[in-house]
Structures are given as structure tokens and as C-alpha cells.
């Protein structure tokens, strides 16, 4: 039991250290300005690292705005990219990034999957889709494991060079979409700097709402994230922490699952938002609440960022 309790103190210390480093960086560096103005003390270069990729996507039928089940085909991801993230391999200058890759030649419709970029030496850079979430890499039209979209990139490394990404897969939910289910949270990892991705947790989702509709308002997973303890010699080194939100009509709860064997398996996810007062006291989480509905007397607004400390997740037998 004490092992689990001390893990929370470690997570709190790491988060505090990260915030402190970020504040120091902001206070001691000059802002990046346009070429017409003063420049910072650093030299930056803009390099294009994306190239067209191939994978399974869902073409939207003429006259429609949503795809149909069973119509996934191999095709180009040669349109826009958006929502990027990057993580540097500890002790090196190599990195893995991730972003949305939009399907086909244009991004007219909301059809995209997450892809990854990697840099292990001098350019050229390499990129590909995160495998295991579309019909080409899964080898099936079944939905799931094939999904119309994956979204919200996030990546982090452990001390052995394994890179992780908490995946949010979902099916088209707009217009008159009949697709099921709504979405799922899972963990993907790569041992070759993002070229090949494997679905962790024994291939099982961390959470999926059963018998869901792509148009439902409750039990909708979103805003997932990953953090890994990559401090050599630490008692909790290479533990993987996945967290996400579940939107339930007018309420939001925060869920978390932990792996202590480098993503091979995860403890059952638990709710760690303030509405759940379990025996968790020392892991630090930060979030912002918001009102999403505009009324005559209340425009959309956000609350101050909130902080909560909890004990880490632990099995009742330990």
C-alpha cells in the first residue's frame, strides 16, 4: 500500500518541477517576433516534415456529409494537418510528433486519423498513420476496430525509448449519421520511434461506452492525455498515466488509468474528478470548467483553472 501512496508524491513533484521550468523559460527568454521587428536571441527554422501518407479512410458519398459503414478504402492522406504535439526522446535529440492527417486530397469533410512524425538523425523526416484504427491496418471493415476518425494528439516517452499515445477513436456524429458506437479510449505505443504502433492493454480499450450511438449526448469520451515517468532510478519509472474527460450531457467527469508494465496492461479506470471522493489524495490534476450553452443572460464562459490532489490509483489487494 505504501508503494502506491508514495507514487502520488512523485507525480506531484514532477508536475511542480515542470511548471517551474516553464515559468523560468517564460521569464528568461525573449518573445518570438516578426522579421520586421526585433528578433529573439535564438535562431529558428521552419521545416516542412509532412509528406502524403496512405491508409484506410471513408469517402463521403455524393450528396451526403457523412460516410457509410463498410465503405473504408485504401487511399491518400494528402490534405490538411492540424492539432500537433511533439515529444523528445530523453537523453537525445530525436523526437516523435503527432497530428491529424485529413483523408483524400481535400479536407471538405471531417475525415481524419492521427499520424506520427519521427526524426532520428538529419532530415529527411518520416511520417505515417498510427496503425490499428482504420480498415487497412486492422484488415477489417468491422466498426470497431475500424473508426472514421482518431483525434487529439499527445505523445510521451519512457526511459527505454518506447513512445506512447492515448488514443480517442470515434465515428462520424454529425448530420444524420447512423454509425455506432460513439467512441473509445485506448493506448497505442511504438518501439521504433513512431513507425509501427501497437494497441496496448492487451489490445483492449481503456474505456468504451457499450451500445452507444454516434449522436448521443451522454457518456462521450474526449480530451485524452498521456504522461510517463521517464526519470531513471525513480521508484515509479516507466509508469504510464492515461487521463480523459467524459461528457455526460450537462456534467463532465475526469477518468484515469495507470499502467505499471509499460503499457502492456492497465488498472481499471476510475473517476478522479471532485465529485468522486475516493481514497486518492496526492496526484495533481488541473482542469478548467466551462459553460457551453449561450443564453440571453449568460454567454459562454470559463472558470479559473482548478487544482486537485489525490492519492494515486491502487489495487485493493496491494
Descriptive overview:
The chain has a domain at 52-59 and 76-273: Neuraminidase (6 Propeller). It contains two helices and 20 strands. A hairpin with a 2-residue loop joins strand 14 (240-248) and strand 15 (251-259). The longest helix has 27 residues, at 2-28. Strands 7, 8, 9, 10, 11 and 12 form a six-stranded antiparallel β-sheet that branches. A four-stranded antiparallel β-sheet has the order 3-4-5-6, with no helix packed on it. It is globular. The protein has 318 residues and is mainly beta.
**Share of helical residues:** under 10%
Strand content: 25-35%
| Helical/strand content category | mainly beta
Q: What is the rounded Rg?
A: 21 Å
Intertermini distance: 5 Å
Which spans of ≥5 residues are poorly predicted at pLDDT below 50?
1-34, 275-283, 294-305, 312-318
Amino acid at each position: 500500500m505504501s508503494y502506491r501512496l508514495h507514487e502520488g508524491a512523485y507525480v506531484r513533484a514532477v508536475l511542480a518541477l515542470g511548471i517551474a521550468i516553464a515559468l523560468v523559460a517564460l521569464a528568461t527568454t525573449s518573445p518570438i517576433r516578426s522579421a520586421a521587428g526585433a528578433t529573439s536571441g535564438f535562431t529558428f527554422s521552419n521545416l516542412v516534415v509532412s509528406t502524403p501518407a496512405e491508409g484506410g479512410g471513408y469517402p463521403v458519398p455524393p450528396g451526403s456529409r457523412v460516410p457509410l459503414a463498410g465503405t473504408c478504402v485504401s487511399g491518400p492522406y494528402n490534405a490538411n494537418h492540424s492539432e500537433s504535439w511533439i515529444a523528445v526522446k530523453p537523453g537525445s535529440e530525436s523526437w516523435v510528433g503527432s497530428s491529424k492527417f485529413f483523408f483524400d486530397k481535400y479536407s471538405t469533410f471531417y475525415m481524419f486519423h492521427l499520424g506520427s512524425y519521427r526524426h532520428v538523425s538529419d532530415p529527411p523526416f518520416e511520417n505515417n498513420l498510427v496503425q490499428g484504427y482504420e480498415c487497412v491496418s486492422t484488415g477489417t471493415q468491422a466498426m470497431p476496430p475500424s473508426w472514421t476518425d482518431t483525434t487529439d494528439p499527445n505523445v510521451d516517452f519512457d526511459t527505454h525509448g518506447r513512445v506512447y499515445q492515448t488514443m480517442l477513436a470515434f465515428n462520424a456524429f454529425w448530420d444524420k449519421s447512423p454509425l455506432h458506437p460513439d467512441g473509445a479510449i485506448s493506448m497505442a505505443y511504438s518501439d521504433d520511434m513512431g513507425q509501427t504502433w501497437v494497441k496496448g492493454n492487451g489490445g483492449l480499450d481503456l474505456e468504451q461506452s457499450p451500445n452507444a450511438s454516434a449522436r448521443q449526448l451522454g457518456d462521450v469520451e474526449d480530451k485524452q492525455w498521456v504522461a510517463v515517468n521517464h526519470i531513471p532510478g525513480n521508484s515509479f519509472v516507466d509508469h504510464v498515466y492515461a487521463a480523459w474527460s467524459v461528457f455526460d450531457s450537462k456534467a463532465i467527469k475526469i477518468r484515469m488509468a495507470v499502467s505499471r508494465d509499460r503499457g502492456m496492461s492497465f488498472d481499471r479506470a476510475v473517476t478522479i474528478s471532485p465529485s468522486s471522493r475516493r481514497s486518492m489524495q496526492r496526484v495533481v490534476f488541473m482542469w478548467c470548467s466551462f459553460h457551453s450553452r449561450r443564453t440571453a443572460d449568460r454567454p459562454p464562459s470559463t472558470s479559473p483553472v482548478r487544482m486537485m490532489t489525490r492519492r494515486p490509483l491502487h489495487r485493493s489487494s496491494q
